[in-house]
Structure formats: structure tokens, C-alpha cells
Amino acid sequence: MSTGLIIALIVIAAVVIIIAAVMTLRARGPRRGPSLKRRFGPEYDRAVVRHDGDAKAAERELTERVQRHGDLRERSLEPAQREQYEARWTAAQERFVDSPREAVAEADRLLSELAGARGFPDGGQYEEQLAALSVHHAHHVDGYRRVHRAAHLRAEDARDGGQGTEDMREAMVAARALFEELVRPARHDGGHTGGRHEEGRHDGHHRAGLNGGRKAQARGGHMPWAINRRQAKES
Known about the structure:
By secondary structure, this protein is an all-alpha fold.
């Protein structure tokens, strides 16, 4: 076999390998982005913004989150635990009227503890806990991010940044959606509960889910969230 023929065969083989590799990448590439976008929803868009519009970098980050936390199996809560967390959340909502900053701090602590009880990384590892929550509760995890940021913002920085009572109220409202996700039974334990959790799950941000429960209604129907700037005190 001549040298020229050998070189020609090597070139042809190399071209075939390159074409096969390109076709494989094209076959895999288009699926990953949409798949991640479906899984992470608004978290996908936030990741893209955080990476200055670089979708590939955002997808690499989200893929790493799935690899680290995708196999996590959420633990169940005992009924007594669930009642305790619900009582604490109701108390935090009611406290918001007089002490919004303290209420936000309590909501942040409560979500951290609740996530830990459900099997997510310990709250002392906030970033890792948030990443794990984003894999399993992507559509509501930003509420935790917002309430955590509000809870750790110093009062003077909040004033300088224009964050007032309304911003903290909105953070609490957003965080409630994640609370409701975490406090209900795990999927492998039968999924949803009835009654109050399901009533507030989809529209709780604007209707029944915004009140503090029976205690709030006992105050003549006044909802803790139906506050104005005169009633709430910056702390």
C-alpha cells in the first residue's frame, strides 16, 4: 500500500470521526438547555442573569447542582413536627405587624431548620442548602433567597438601599410558598395534605395563604399582611 493511500485513509477516518463527534454534540446539546429550563423554571433565568447572559455557563452550574443533589430523598416530618413548624410560621406572620425585621429573621431561621429536617444540607451551609433546594423546589426557592437576604441586611444598609417594610413583606410572602412545599408530606409518603395546605398552595400569596390562620381571623378579620406603612415599624 502506497504512502499516499495510507495518508488518504487516515484523513478520511479523521473526517468521519469529527463528523460523528459533531453530530453527537448536536444531538445532545439542544436537549440539555430545554430540559434544564423545564426543570429549573425561573431559577434557570436567574442563573443566566448571574452569568451575564452566558446560557452555557448557567447550564453547567445547574447541571452540577443536579449531579450533587439530584438523588437527595426528602425525609418525612412527624405530625407533631409539622404542627410545630406551622405554629412558628403563623407566629412569625403575626409578629410582622409590629416587628417586621424580627419576623423576617425568624422566617429565615425557620426555613433553614425545616429544610434541614427534610434532609437538605444543614442551614449552616446556606449556599449548598439553597442549591439543593433549587433542584427539588426550583419554582419556590427564590422566596428563601429573598427572605435570607432581607434577614441579613443591616437596618442602615436596608434604608440606604431603599428596602422598606413592603420589600420585607414581599419577601415573607414569597418565602411562604417554599414553606408550604416543605411542610407538607414528601411525595413518597402520599404527596399532598388536604385542607389548609392545598387551599393556599397555588393562590396563597394573594388570598387565604396570606393570613395568619385562626388567630388572625379572631382579630376581627384583620390579616397580618394587610398592613400599611403607618402600622408597621421599621426595626
